[in-house]
Design brief:
The chain is of the alpha+beta class. Helices cover 32% and strands 39% of the residues. It is built from 5 helices and 7 strands; from the N terminus they run ααββββαββααβ. The protein has helices at residues 3-7, 11-20, 58-65, 97-111, 117-127, and strands at residues 23-29, 35-41, 43-45, 48-54, 68-75, 83-94, 131-145. The protein has a 7-stranded antiparallel sheet. The chain is globular and about 50 Å long.
């Protein structure tokens, strides 16, 4: 078996990994054709992830031109600890106010657990008009977990 096959995560491992991490790095193509990278909080959704962002952000402008992105989630402080998932994604821009609010609630619940639901709904509803939801659906997933090698290269 190749080293590549040994470090690949199963679909279940990918899902667990995404559920346990906190930040995605999203690469879109800027107006000059160069990658534009932005870190975002997210929550797992289906095989992919979802988030929201300001409607006037550069990443949204890029995605309106080309609704494709590469998403990277990675962790590890040494080679034998490296783990990550890279997803080439089709991106849905969600503009319906109710749907944007739902995405905002999903995201905010994940990062601010224990907040009163009424307070949460009030804060998210106030922010939603300025936001756009982003739903990343993978067309290709590449994963790695170097801990599967048992500390060897």
């Amino acid at each position: 078996m190749s080293r590549r096959e040994q470090i690949r995560m199963s679909p279940g491992e990918v899902s667990s990994y995404l559920a346990g991490q906190r930040v995605i790095n999203v690469a879109t193509l800027g107006p000059n054709g160069r990658p534009h990278l932005a870190p975002l909080w997210y929550f797992p959704r289906g095989e992919g992830v979802a988030t929201w962002t300001y409607g006037k952000s550069q990443k949204v402008a890029n995605l309106r031109r080309d609704p494709h992105a590469t998403v990277l989630v990675e962790s590890g402080d040494s080679y034998e600890e490296l783990r990550g998932v890279s997803m080439e994604c089709d991106v849905e821009l969600v503009t319906d106010p109710a749907a944007v609010t739902e995405l905002g609630l999903g995201l905010t619940r994940r990062y601010t657990p224990g907040v009163d639901e009424d307070t949460l709904a009030e804060v998210v509803s106030a922010q939603a008009p300025k936001r756009i939801g982003l739903v990343f659906t993978p067309t290709r997933i590449v994963s790695w977990d170097h801990s599967k090698l048992g500390g060897t290269y």
